Amino acid sequence: MTKLSRRQFCMTGLALGGALSLVGGLPAGAQQLKGGTLRVAVLSELANYDPQQLSTVNFHVIKNLYDSLIEYTPEGKPEPSLATAWTISPDKTSVSLTLRDGVTFHSGTPFKADSVLATLQKGADPKRGKNVFPTMSIVKDWSAPDDRTVVINFKAPVPERQILDLLQFLLPIDPKGIDMVETVPAGTGPYTLVSRAVGQGLRLKANPKYWRPNQPVMQDLVFTVFTEDAAATAALESGAVDIVYGGSSRSAVRLKNGGYQVFAGPGPLVQVFRINSTRGPFRNKSFRQAFNHLMDRASILRVGYAGMGQEVALPWAPASPAFDAAYTKTYGYDIEKAKKLIAASGLSADEMKGWKLLVNGSDEASVSISQIVQGSLQKAGIPVELDMRQGAEYVTALLGGDFAATFGAVGNVQKFPSRVATNSIYRTSGNPVLKDPHPHPDYVAAIAKVDAATGSAAEVKASYDNLNKVMVEEAFGVPTNSYDVGLIVASDKIGGITLDIDNLLVARTIGFK
Amino acid sequence: MTGLAAAGRLLRRLLARRGAALSLAFLTVVGLAALFAGLMPLDPLRQNIAESLKPPSPDAWFGTDELGRDILARVIYGARTSLVTAFGAVVIAALIGVPVGLVAGFYGDWRDSILMRCIDVLLALPNILFAMALIAVLGRSQGAALVAVGVAGIPGFARIARAQVMALRQLDFVMAVRGFGGGPAYIMFRTILPNALSPLVVQAIVLASIAILLEAALAFLGVGVPPPTPSWGEMLRTGKSYLYEAPSYAVLPGLVLTLTILSFDTIGRALTAIIDRDETDGVRETAGGGR
Q1: Does the N terminus or the C terminus of chain B have fewer Cβ atoms within 10 A?
Q2: Among A250, A362, A375, whose Cβ lies nearest the Cβ of B222?
């Protein structure tokens, strides 16, 4: 046996230590991760398993039960998923997709073109299409030349980014289960449903036939629903769960300071002060424009979201091609400017009163930021009361347009700009708040112009600039700040976190270090 | 003995008990602070977000909340919300519950059966659930909270009033008034009620503490007085989210709430003890006189 001298022993130790620290410094995904049961605390009970009814309440399950046709990297670069290739025609009026071979749905049905056609059919149905329906407005028809190819034709030339957004938004559903998809998941995703206890949580297990090699890492995925953010974070701190998904920014900041890993995805939401411009004083444009300057955005961001996010005066995340920081400065908080616009409205003091600010009483951030606006309005000489409503009562009022003004977040703010019209307040037709015909034709025209801008970069930019200008002038939605949705706070033993472009939870790459 | 003299004697006997005296002193301070809050240089609504979530300091004795508002000012103005709700609830409960109990106990026939079954139905409903249902119908406001808590307090008054009437209605002094031609209303309200007041006063004090707790619970559940009106329950609800950053935000209003309820309860218990002792002494005197 070779004997090591003290010097050799020390050098070997240093070398080993250096190597270990190098491995420790590697990205989590590059490390060898171990499987097991991943326990995730979530703050919301999912609505259903329909991937076309995407909302924050089911963000934690969709990408674990389904796959998209294509995916975006966190930087917004498209990459293959169930579609291995896509070819956009030179005139940008169609896209041809090549579908992945060897994929099966959870039921065992092979993934073929018929499932994509069924998914497109559902998305184009005004009753069944849900969130996907507005995105399908650009689609003329579709066909399947063979089992592995799908061609989607558009009504007019469509910007490339919008086509990619559509493909990323389409999550193929098993044709056999498409009618029952709200209650029984029917995807190709890395996990399959084992059981669900409504109001308590659900359990998923790894899909043994999953097509991505070596994924999912974890064998079991257990979600527990917590009604209180504090309870969820306490569960993480006590070791009862491994991850808190969708917790508050305030807790994330605290836990990060306590040594936990915090991951914020590239797909934030933008908080928007929604104004029902068909009611009372809000029919007056100048009165509405005053609200651009009544939003104390810095305070809203600080109090409501622990400073995590960015002040914005337009409904875009910084990653959006239409993002323009100059608007935040031009339309910043300024009571005097607001007062001038209020005076210019010609409304009497009585005409400006008599409305209430609808507040989601179940959301502490909304309660706080609504009080900030209430304070600003008081300074501007407009006393208003808060109309506090809880849970479903609030959602019914929000989606039914039964309010004068309220805060409500909007999504798809990092994608193609006209995708903002998937949010109820920004819909160009069938708007549940503003109704038909749309009371802001300039806005509808601006969205159409963005959709039609397929030419030079200058033309595209001009269409974005026009949309931005129209949005602040019409002021039926006054954005205040972006904030992180789907925040992931994980214990230090967790690795392999994949950030999704929409901040959905992607559990397939997560494992134990 | 005049009513004033009797009240003075009762107060002296109450103050002789240390717990009751301390409770009374605390409630007096809270009551006076709530009554004269407008004269103090405190604004419960003034926001100063740059100074949010500050710990207690000479500038803000109880610290500041997430909007930089003075928590002490909100606790003092919140006392108004709580005490007004308590007072209003007691008035509503007494105005309805006492006549119902008097009628039911006095007649004791089918009227008793009907009224008491109605009271039983009301009693069967959990207070908080009933109050929430009522607020869902009436809308979220201080008035709605007050009515909800008041209605929830009716059964207590009705049952005590009924029990008192049943105990007193066959006594000589009541029979005498009846013999002199006193009508049912006169006997119930002018003869029996004054002699049944003591337990009803205790019930009023107990209900006041329950009302404060119920109002705080409703606010904590998000269906109480809407913000920015200060409310102890609302402060607890919001403050619990900031327990790590600003413990005083939830703890101090919680402490004031606890002490207020405890004080009402202590006074209620002391009064019960005094009344019980008087009754025992009365029985002894009667027994002694018969020897």
Answers
A1: C
A2: A362
Give the residue numbers spanning the domain of A201: 1-61+189-267+486-513
Domain spanning B43-280 has what CATH number? Answer: 1.10.3720.10
- In this structure, the answer to whether residues A227 and A344 fall within a common structural domain is no
Predicted confidence at residue A7, as pLDDT, reads 46
CA distance B50 to chain A (A): 8
| Interface residue B45 vs chain A (CB under 8 A) | yes
A367 inside 8 A of chain B by CB = yes
Check whether residue A381 and residue A427 sit in a common domain: yes
Query: How far is Cα B20 from Cα B274, in angstroms, rounded to an integer?
Result: 11
- Does B66 sit within 8 Å of A368, measured CB to CB? yes
Q: Which of A253, A260, A386, A388 to mutate to test the interface with B (most CBs of B within 10 A)?
A: A388
ipTM strictly over 0.90? no
- Summarised one tens digit per residue, pLDDT across range A397-416 is 888 889 999 999 998 898 89
For residue A321, which of A185, A457, A482 has the smallest C-alpha distance? Answer: A457
Cα separation of B234 and B229, whole Å?
A: 9
pTM metric for this prediction:
0.80
Integer Cα distance of A427 and A406 in angstroms: 17
Q: What is the pLDDT of residues A271-289, one digit of tens each?
A: 999 999 999 999 999 999 9
- Which DSSP category does A306 fall into? T
Which CATH number belongs to the domain containing residue A406 in this structure?
3.10.105.10
> Do A80 and A166 have their domain in common?
yes
CATH number at residue A100: 3.90.76.10
Q: With beta carbons under 8 A apart, name residues in chain A contacting B74.
A: none
How far is it, in rounded angstroms, from Cα A356 to Cα A68?
Answer: 41
Same-domain check for residues A381 and A447: yes
* Mean pLDDT, contiguous 10-residue spans, chain B (291 residues): 70 90 95 91 92 93 95 95 91 95 92 93 86 83 84 92 90 89 89 87 91 90 87 91 89 95 93 79 51 36
Rounded CA gap, B24 and A266, in Å? 59
Q: What is the CATH number of the domain that holds A31?
A: 3.40.190.10
Q: How far apart are the CA of B82 and the nearest CA of chain A, in angstroms?
A: 19
Same domain, A177 and A99: yes
Q: Do A364 and B240 count as a contact with CB atoms less than 8 A apart?
A: no
Do A426 and A324 lie in one domain? The reply is yes
The CA-based angle B41-B47-B48, given to 5 degrees, is: 95
Tally of structural domains, chain A: 3
Q: Which segments in chain A show pLDDT lower than 50?
A: 1-30
Give Cα B189 distance to the centre of its chain. 23
**A41 and A173 part of one domain:** no
Measured between beta carbons, the chain B residues lying within 8 angstroms of A380 are none
